[in-house]
Amino acid sequence: QVQLVESGGGLVQAGGSLRLSCAASGSIFSINVMGWFRQAPGQERELITTITSDGSTYYADSVKGRFTISRDNAKNTLHLQMSSLRPEDTAMYYCAAPGLYIGQGTQVTVSS
User: Fold this and answer.
1) Helix/strand number for the chain, H first, E second
2) What mean pLDDT value characterizes the chain?
3) Is 104 a residue whose pLDDT tops 80?
4) Is 89 helix (H, G, I), strand (E, B) or coil?
5) What does DSSP say about strands 106-111 and 101-102: parallel, antiparallel, or unpaired?
6) 71, 107, 103, 79: which is closest to 2 by C-alpha?
7) Which among 30, 17, 29 has a CA at the least distance from the CA of 89?
8) Distances from the Cα of 77 to the Cαs of 40, 43, 61, 86, in angstroms?
9) Helix (H) or strand (E) segment spanning residue 102
C-alpha cells in the first residue's frame, strides 16, 4: 500500500505560478503511470496530466503549455509546476497512481 500526500497548494493571483509536490510513502519506481487530477466545486474530477516511468507525458488541453509534470523515482516524489494560472484552475488537486492510489488533495485557488 502506498500513501500519497500532496503539498504546495494555496492562493495565487491570476498569471502566477505554484509548484505542487506529492510524497509517496512507498516506492513509486514500479508504478508505471502517475498523474494529477483536479476537481472544482460542482464538477467531475478531471485527469489533467500523467507521466510514465520512462518519462512520457500527457496533458489535457486545458493545461497544455502551462503545467509541467515531473517525477523523481529515487525520492518517491511527483511534482506539478503550474504557470500562467487562471481563475478556472481553481480546484482541489490530487496526486494519483490512476486506478491504484490517490491522495487527499491540496487546494489551489486562483484569484482574478
Assistant:
1) 0, 11
2) 95
3) yes
4) helix
5) unpaired
6) 103
7) 17
8) 24, 27, 24, 25
9) strand 101-102
Cell, residue 86: 487562471
Closest CA to 73 of 57, 56, 53: 53
At residue 30, the pLDDT reads 83
pLDDT at position 26, please? 80
What residues have CB less than 8 Å from 16, skipping those under 6 apart?
85, 110
Type of residue at 57? T
pLDDT one-digit tens code per residue, 43-59: 999 999 999 999 999 99
Rounded to the nearest 5 degrees, what angle is found at the Cα of 46, between the Cα atoms of 45 and 49?
140
